[in-house]
């Protein structure tokens, strides 16, 4: 004989399903970030951050629903533990996104340097200071005093 879940438990079940869909989507999008073009990185990161914000909202709703369950009940303990676990999972997704963003930035910086290398003029001397000109920007290489 199965018991009919309380309204709070029914709501928590729906929240868990939505949480699963969102986190799976986030995981997939983080994985795809490395294979999309450089111009698509920012859009992908914004989309992932939006989904992470949705997950945060969802977790807050879950916590409110957990507090509607009777104190000390098995259901409350079970869902309280799950929500804490979901929060940890979300933190891990945020950490993974940061790592991917750092790798992409590092790769983009390297690509920029390599492409700029072709436009660097050999040392130019101006007022006793040696400069390397990169496009219209000049940076001192070493000073001669």
Automatic annotation (TrEMBL):
Source superkingdom: Eukaryota
Signal peptide (residue range): none
Cellular component per GO, a single term: membrane
InterPro entries: SNARE, v-SNARE_N_sf, Vesicle_trsprt_v-SNARE_N
Vesicle transport v-SNARE N-terminal domain sequence ranges: 11-100
Coiled coil feature spans: 45-110
Pfam families: V-SNARE (PF05008)
Keywords recorded for this protein, A-Z: Coiled coil
A GO biological process held by the record: intracellular protein transport
Similarity comment text for this entry: Belongs to the VTI1 family.
The name this protein goes by in its record: V-SNARE domain-containing protein
Species for this entry: Steinernema glaseri
